[in-house]
Amino acid sequence: MNRREFLLSSATAAGALGMGGYGVAASHVKELILQPASFALRGGQITNGMVSLSPDAPPPVLYGQQGKVMRLPVRNTLPDYTAMHWHGLRIPNAMDGVPYLTQMPMGENELFTYEFTPPDAGTYWYHPHCMTMEQMAHGLTGVMVIAEPENPGFDSEQVINLRDFRLDDDGSFLPAFTQRGAARSGTFGNVHTVNWLQNPTYDHAAGGLVRLRVVNTDTTRTYKLHLSASDARIIAWDGHPIEGEVPLPAQETPLMVGPGQRVDIAVAMPTDEGQTFDLIVKLPGQPHRAMVRLRAIGQSQARNLRELRPLPTNPVAKPDLANAELHEFVFGWTPEGGIPDNGFCGTLGYNFWSINRKPWPGDAAQDVGPLATLKMGKTYVLRLRNESPNTHPIHLHGLAFKPIRSNQRKLPPLMTDTMLLLKDEVVEIALVADNPGDWAFHCHVIEHQKTGLTGFIRVI
Ligand code: C2O
Ligand code: CU
Ligand code: CU
To answer: What share of the chain is helix, strand, coil (3-state, %, to 5)?
Structure first.
């Protein structure tokens, strides 16, 4: 697909979906082409050396439907290796996009056609799983929306892809990682964007019901968020509808959304034309900052959140806790030395982290075994222990899990694929091992993933 065809198909799809943005229905996708891009991330300054699926636009929101097949041919035109991963989707292992584990990395001009049927509706995302630091930090992190068979009653929706970029004063990229950052909480970006824009404003019908799909695709930052809207409710977390009430974020108790995590918020637009509300983020040592503004336009319909039908639950198997088997995982630093981690294709050149005190020894190594082998259909409790003072968003591919207890806090009733582990926290998660294959299991702070905090779990 060339640039014009891409724009045409995305315009049609975005129009049809009432997106007013940069969405494309997966059924319209002829090819997703990884390519170099340029974009004005800050002011009028063009940043070159970005990576996207078009030469001058962010990776599009890909729309699919629950239970409907999606066919996504991905072509790599970069001089580096790559592979595309569909974060959070419970799809066959061979389509998971993890180099050496589920497929060979794709070289320049190679094509790999991903084809799968998403079993779950919700908010997901996609990113390369090879040369991850280079390609993600330079822009290639896109949102994926899997729609329920029926709209539960929203008038519109708004995708909010949160990303920081690390730029110099002239708009050029600063190094995406630092040894100092990799050994601590990661290296943070300094230009904060939503859908690659700084402080965008989006218009939605006055009084209408909007579904916000907030996605943290950053390589490092855990966003602390709150909303200045008066009528809003969290309806889903990491794709899956929540089973109970989760308190709405407020200024004093912001919502922590770690790298890889998503939160869906239902919100009623203000009823007067021109009225606004903001999604606000608290950055360390800075005043609260509005990341994105929603503005009411047109005649008010004054709808109420109670008019929404509950989201249908996704078909995730319920853990049988009485017959569960326990596995323990310790996340922490690694002893000095060893081979630098080759964390699934691409290395940073050093090792700081480990799972069960062993750093990931490199995907090309012949003898790398799974961290655990789980039996199909059985329930497992995984005890995740953070031995370090840094937070780690621990992500498991291919399976959804239920956090059941923490030694530090009351956990909300969720199903998820990415668990944010706080300093010294121990969290137990429960799952039914019902998707066979080798599933990557790693921290989603990419500098941690790439310096040892990676492994995989086998389901047979
Ligand atoms: Cu979002 Cu292993 O990835
Ligand atoms: Cu993933
Ligand atoms: Cu980490």
So the answer is: 10, 40, 50
Inside any domain, residue 312: no
* Residue whose CA lies nearest to ligand 1 atom number 1: 87
Q: Which residues pair with 242 in a beta bridge?
A: none
442 CB within 6 A, ligand 1: yes
- Could you tell me if the CB of 448 is within 6 A of ligand 1? no
Regarding the beta carbon of 269 and ligand 1, being less than 6 Å apart is answered: no
Cα 284 to ligand 1 centroid, rounded to whole Å: 26
Q: Rounded distance, CA 127 to CA 400, Å?
A: 19
Give the closest residue (by CA) to ligand 1 atom 3.
Answer: 87
pTM score of the predicted model: 0.93
Q: Per-residue confidence at 358, pLDDT binned at 50, 70, 90?
A: confident
Q: Is 440 in the pocket of ligand 1 (CB under 6 A)?
A: yes
Choose one of 117, 147, 177: the last residue of a domain: 147
**Which residues, by Cβ under 5 Å, contact ligand 2, an ion?**
87, 397
Single-letter amino acid, residue 150: E
Instruction: Write the residue with the smallest CA distance to atom 2 of ligand 1.
Output: 440
Last residue in a domain, options 265, 280, 307? 307
Question: Is residue 87 within 6 Å of ligand 1 at its C-beta?
Answer: yes
Residues 138 and 246 in one domain: no
Q: Tell me, what DSSP letter sits at residue 104?
A: P
| CATH (domain of 225) | 2.60.40.420
Q: Which atom of ligand 1 is least distant from the CA of 440?
A: 2
**Residue 331: its pLDDT value, please?**
94
d(CA 125, CA 144): 5
Domain boundaries, position 388: 321-459
Q: Do 65 and 147 touch, CB atoms closer than 8 A?
A: yes
ipTM of the complex: 0.99
Give the position, in ligand 1's atom list, of the atom nearest the Cα of 127: 1
Q: How far is the CA of 340 from the centre of ligand 1 (A)?
A: 20
pLDDT above 70 (res 273): yes
Q: Do 113 and 180 reside in the same domain of the chain?
A: no
pLDDT of residue 6: 38
Q: Which of 50, 105, 48, 99 is nearest to 76 (CA)?
A: 105
- Model confidence at 290, pLDDT cuts 50, 70, 90, reads very high
Residue 34, φ and ψ in degrees, nearest 5: -70, 125
φ/ψ of residue 187, rounded to 5: -100, 120
Ligand 1 pocket member 397 (CB < 6 A): yes
